[in-house]
Backbone:
């Protein structure tokens, strides 16, 4: 009996040391992140979409931020003939291989002539990834709001600029991860 009791204390001590080592090493947080929000590690990276009309670079960070740059943004090729800034936003996990992002960009009428700021575009983007997180298809829907209107704090009298609604097209946009150098 005495030997069994000593062995139990020894096993408990070893287990306690193993748990303490696991917690101190940071692996507990990583294990939880992999289980709960580890999607960030899988989707983080830079992606490229090339179409007949141009290209888009999409940067997704593991911390829930993203940004994109479109080749048409300074050409007056926007929804209502406007130019627009880089797109910035935040994403959250909405499926096993899916994220949903809310993004914004600033819009300018006739950027080259300097006529100025016409509003803020707010967009909801949904990106679904393949099994290996190397390719993703993004769909989006957005609207442009005039100066003085915060698209995330709308009042009853607020409305988007007429005919400023847009999508990423019926099939969405296909992005491919840029390979890591080396």
Residues:
């Amino acid at each position: 009996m005495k030997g069994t009791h000593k062995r139990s204390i020894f096993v408990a001590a070893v287990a306690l040391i193993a748990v303490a080592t696991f917690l101190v090493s940071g692996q507990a947080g990583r294990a939880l992140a992999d289980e709960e929000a580890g999607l960030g590690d899988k989707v983080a990276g830079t992606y490229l979409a090339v179409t007949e009309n141009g290209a888009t670079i999409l940067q997704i960070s593991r911390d829930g931020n993203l940004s994109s740059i479109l080749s048409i943004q300074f050409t007056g090729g926007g929804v209502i003939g406007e130019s627009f800034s880089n797109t910035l936003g935040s994403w959250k996990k909405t499926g096993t291989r899916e994220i949903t992002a809310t993004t914004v960009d600033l819009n300018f009428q006739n950027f080259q002539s300097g006529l100025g700021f016409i509003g803020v575009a707010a967009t909801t983007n949904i990106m679904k990834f393949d099994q290996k997180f190397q390719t993703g298809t993004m769909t989006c829907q957005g609207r442009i709001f005039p100066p003085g209107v915060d698209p995330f704090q709308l009042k009853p009298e607020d409305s988007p600029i007429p005919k400023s609604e847009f999508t990423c097209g019926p099939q969405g946009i296909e992005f491919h991860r840029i390979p890591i150098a080396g």
Notes: The chain has two domains: 2-35, 41-177.
